[in-house]
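[agent] plan:
  1. take the single chain provided in the ticket
  2. run structure prediction with default settings
  3. attach structure tokens to the ticket
  4. add a short note for the reviewer (M.T.)
[agent] executing step 1
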Amino acid sequence: MDADRLMIGNSKCGEFPVAVLRHPALRENILIANVKPLAQKRILYNLEGVNAPRASPIFIEGSMRCEERVATIMSGTGLLYLLLCLLGAPVLASHHYTEKQLDALATRVGKGFWVVPVDGKLPLFHIAPSSNAGTFQPAANQAFEIVELVGRKIKNPYYKVRLDTGKEGYIRVEDFHEQFNSAILTIDPIADERTKLPEQSEGEQQRLEWIRAQPWSNAFKEAAIKRQVAPGMKSGDVKMVLGNPLRTRKVPKRQQIAEEHWFYPAGKILVFQNGILIRVESQQK
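[agent] step 2 finished; step 3 output follows
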């Protein structure tokens, strides 16, 4: 078998989640052998993205170490590290991180996330960037922002996070990626509940009365009543229309006017300069 080919079989040379193996760069280099017909059928189901009748482990065999074999095939794609990390596959130890991999990890700095319980458990944050440091647990559905990637010099990276309460903590990047899209989400899990305000509540009535009293066009007023804002609005007007943001963040710009970002439910980000709304963005993964 060629050095850059993978064989799926029963020898436990290595085990990878099927989502990694579905990547085109790997999928076309996979051979299936030495497995029973039913197991082979399940493997094919998984590789084609169809739910198998029963979960089946995927093993890789060959003369090279499995991580090296995958790396050989994925070389040049720039996706190896992120695929293995994000999908929970085995990765090299922390001290093997390259600068390119650390740069990829740092792309999450400045982005917001939410925590949700999985099997009754929530992610844990350390009080310092060390596995020996104490831990604390955030509240369910609590938002946090990654503010820094620390530990680069010693190749032991942690994400420094800031919760919406202002409390700060740390989480190993491996732990973050292991829980990403399960206990850690990019979208507010209760966004709908946060936006469902009683229409006849006193606060809502005051909001509607304020909007109707503004010297705006009827179309603009109708949009504001539906909680829609537009560039050019003052920050105070935006707050009257949408309410207080979940959190805010100032973003300095070199040789440009600094921006202030307001974060709202459903991943909506409002960007201000000098107190004026200049654009509305949607948070991406």
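[agent] step 4 note for reviewer: Confidence is low (pLDDT under 50) at residues 1-15, 50-65, 73-94.
[agent] ticket updated
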